[in-house]
From TrEMBL:
Name by which UniProt lists this protein: Ornithine carbamoyltransferase
The Aspartate/ornithine carbamoyltransferase carbamoyl-P binding domain, residue ranges: 29-167
Database matches in Gene3D superfamilies: Aspartate/ornithine carbamoyltransferase
NCBIfam families cross-referenced by the UniProt entry: orni_carb_tr, PRK00779.1
SUPFAM superfamilies, A to Z: Aspartate/ornithine carbamoyltransferase
HAMAP family named in the record: OTCase
InterPro entries the UniProt entry points to: Asp/Orn_carbamoyltranf_P-bd, Asp/Orn_carbamoylTrfase, Asp/Orn_carbamoylTrfase_sf, Asp_carbamoyltransf_Asp/Orn-bd, Orn/put_carbamltrans, OTCase_ArgI
Localization, UniProt: Cytoplasm
Binding site for carbamoyl phosphate: R127, H154, P155, V156, Q157, C284, L285, R312
EC number: 2.1.3.3
Length: 331
């Protein structure tokens, strides 16, 4: 009788040491847009995010002695928690500053806030209303500034999104990524990622709610494969279906008008049946159930929504390492 072979235990990933850490790819740089990185730098950040999720960074603290200021004009669950926990896990420290405390542009000039922070901390992350606020902070601060969300872009979210896509679908180039809903900061950042990755990005949105025209035209000029349509048939066969809220913070006065405009663009189980058999559904959260999505969609077998939320931690830790890694503590 032939004895069955004992199954091999899965290999344990090798733990990194201070001597085997990759070189920081974006040392000391601002990150206000996904296009602030090259495709090669994006690859470095995503590779690091994957290795961090595998637990290979457990015994290193590359940001020991460093501090990140977290500025919040907007409420936050995922951005605040993951940047704070990420700095802690990498050996650093985060300090949260709400707009009530610092009053960007009201209590103090943005330039003065930047010139103060650069003397105390090693980097700034801002979740703000206006992209211009981040640009002004970056202009006046001699330390890196990271865009945690603005009216124009949400680049850190897209890092987590593409980490999630790679986990489930492998190579991103040529995959059909269909974003359905408001042509907001998420849609703009999806277009930027189409430039960087070679993904086939389709934006499905009602007339009058298209993404930023300059972002779209610049991407097309760079050779990105971007499709803009209001035809829901574009969902059919998608490798990734993505949606976001119809009513963002600050748009509450437009709520009823927007609900009418987006009727029919809701992601539900029937819509998920139309995407590719191995396709996945993503939503950056928070979800407004009964509007852009229903609960059975986030709980659907094709949903990777909460894995995507987890990856905010790993992707942002990777970004922090590649921007702040190698910085010497100033005390």
């Amino acid at each position: 009788m032939t004895r069955a072979k004992k199954a091999k235990a899965p290999a344990t990933p090798a733990l990194l040491t201070d001597a085997t850490l990759p070189a920081p790819a974006m040392a000391g740089r601002d990150f206000l847009s996904n296009l602030d990185m090259t495709p090669q730098e994006l690859r470095a950040v995503l590779d690091t995010a994957h290795s961090m999720k595998r637990g290979q960074w457990r015994q290193v603290k590359p940001l020991a002695g460093l501090t990140l200021a977290l500025i919040f004009e907007k409420a936050s669950l995922r951005t605040r928690t993951t940047f704070d926990v990420g700095m802690y896990q990498l050996g650093g420290h985060a300090i949260t500053l709400t707009n009530q405390e610092i009053g960007l542009g009201t209590r103090e000039r943005i330039s003065d806030v930047a010139r103060n922070l650069e003397r105390w901390v090693d980097g700034v992350m801002g979740r703000v209303y206006l992209q211009q606020t981040l640009q002004e902070l970056a202009q006046h601060a001699r330390i890196p500034v990271i865009n945690g969300l603005s009216d124009m872009l949400h680049p850190v979210q897209l890092l987590a999104d593409y980490q999630t896509i790679e986990e489930h679908l492998g190579e991103v180039r040529g995959k059909r990524i269909v974003y359905i809903g408001d042509g907001n900061n998420l849609a703009n950042s999806h277009i930027h990622m189409g430039v960087l990755t070679g993904a086939d990005v389709t934006i499905v949105t009602p007339v009058g709610y298209e993404p930023n025209g300059a972002v779209l035209m610049d991407a097309v000029k760079q050779g990105a494969r971007i499709t803009l349509t209001n035809d829901l048939a574009a969902v059919d066969g998608a490798d990734v279906l993505y949606t976001d809220v119809w009513i963002s913070m600050g748009q509450e006065a437009e709520a009823e008008h927007r609900r009418r405009a987006f009727r029919g663009y809701q992601v539900n189980a029937a819509m998920l049946d139309r995407i590719a058999p191995n396709g996945i559904f993503l939503h950056c959260l928070p979800a407004h159930y009964g509007e852009e999505v229903v609960e059975e969609a986030t709980d659907h077998p094709k949903s990777c929504v909460f894995n995507q939320a987890e990856n905010r931690l790993h992707a942002q830790k990777a970004l922090l390492y590649h921007i702040l890694g190698g910085t010497q503590p100033r005390w």
